[in-house]
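> forwarded from #structure-qc
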């Protein structure tokens, strides 16, 4: 038996693969196109491990996917592969349409064909797990209740709209064809191996380089923060015991403003890696022009997965962020390797003027 993972060289996908193989001998077939955020270095510890079969390829390549499914006969497909950064979707939405919508459609078609050819018992046990985001639900007022599994989809960016479309396709394949699907919608992830376009690794990279730490607008946008290891454990639990056709929201019960996140990170760095000049890292924080259509607040009500599947996050924001800062301090070469010239060019485009993120 094996599982099939898409996007398993990216941030969440690689953490999932590493955690899976740390706890199970069940092999993983890992398909990743290795775009800018898919990094084989994330999986370096698995080199020579026969339980990990890595294939460079696109989820939109129907013939490749159907061949891999036929050869490896997985009992489950866990779909992480996606273009996932809102800012990039604003500058170039077409990649998001192609990967998140067209790619997911072709993956579903391959999964449907494979599943349809299984024996009755194997068909019953097969699962297609769609890993999605809380951003499909839109934005929340400060006093509004957190997103639940029944919240209306109201995506506000090309990224979230493309993920919403993918979620709807997954639901339709269950309703129309009977494909045994599961969907998870998670809040903001953080932790090891996150590409430094996202807030926490971006600020880690800039802080250590003595550069500005950019915060959009007033810095008071609110997100629910989920440590990636907790997210991986929740996905394993949903795959194990989730009800076919259902949606499970996964959150960290940790709503924080972006300013709180960055000032807490700075305080940890002040303790673990003080600046040579003795000044506080928080002095590097700058406010930059807000991005278009910036959602004010996301929050996840994760009570269903706790009630039905007995899952809760093991990390608080304080413990998870400290673990994350430790990891980046201990893996500075990894951080240097991923901050290529192309990445610096994107930063200059996104934040204006210079690659340090200042306005």
């Amino acid at each position: 038996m094996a599982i099939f993972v898409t996007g398993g060289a990216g941030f969440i996908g690689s953490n999932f693969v590493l955690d899976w193989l740390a706890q199970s001998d069940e092999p993983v077939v890992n398909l990743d196109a290795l775009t800018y955020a898919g990094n084989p270095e994330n999986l370096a510890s698995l080199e020579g491990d026969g339980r990990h079969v890595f294939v460079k390829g696109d989820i939109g390549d129907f013939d490749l996917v159907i061949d891999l499914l036929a050869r490896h006969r997985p009992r489950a497909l866990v779909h992480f592969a996606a273009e996932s950064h809102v800012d990039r979707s604003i500058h170039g939405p077409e990649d998001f349409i192609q990967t998140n919508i067209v790619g997911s459609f072709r993956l579903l078609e391959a999964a449907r064909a494979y599943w349809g050819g299984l024996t009755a018992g194997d068909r019953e046990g097969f699962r297609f797990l769609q890993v999605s985001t809380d951003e499909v639900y839109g934005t929340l007022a400060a006093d509004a209740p957190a997103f639940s599994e029944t919240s209306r989809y109201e995506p506000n960016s090309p990224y979230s709209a493309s993920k919403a479309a993918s979620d709807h396709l997954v639901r339709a394949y269950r309703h129309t064809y009977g494909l045994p699907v599961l969907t998870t919608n998670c809040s903001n992830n953080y932790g090891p191996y996150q590409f430094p376009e996202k807030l926490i690794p971006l600020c880690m990279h800039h802080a250590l380089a003595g550069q500005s730490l950019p915060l959009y607008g007033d810095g008071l946008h609110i997100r629910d923060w989920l440590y990636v290891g907790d997210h991986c454990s929740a996905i394993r639990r949903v795959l194990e015991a989730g009800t076919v056709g259902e949606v499970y929201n996964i959150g960290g019960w940790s709503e924080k403003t972006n300013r709180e996140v960055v000032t807490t990170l700075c305080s940890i760095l002040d303790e673990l890696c003080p600046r040579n000049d003795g000044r506080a890292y928080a002095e590097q924080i700058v406010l930059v022009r807000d991005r278009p259509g910036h959602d004010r607040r996301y929050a996840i009500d994760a009570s269903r997965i706790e009630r039905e599947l007995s899952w809760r996050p093991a990390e608080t924001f304080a413990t998870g962020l400290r673990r994350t800062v430790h990891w980046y301090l201990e893996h500075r070469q990894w951080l240097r390797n991923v901050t290529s010239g192309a990445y610096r060019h994107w930063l200059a485009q996104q934040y204006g003027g210079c690659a340090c993120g200042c306005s």
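QC bot note: The CA atoms of residues 82 and 100 lie 5 Å apart. The radius of gyration is 20 Å.
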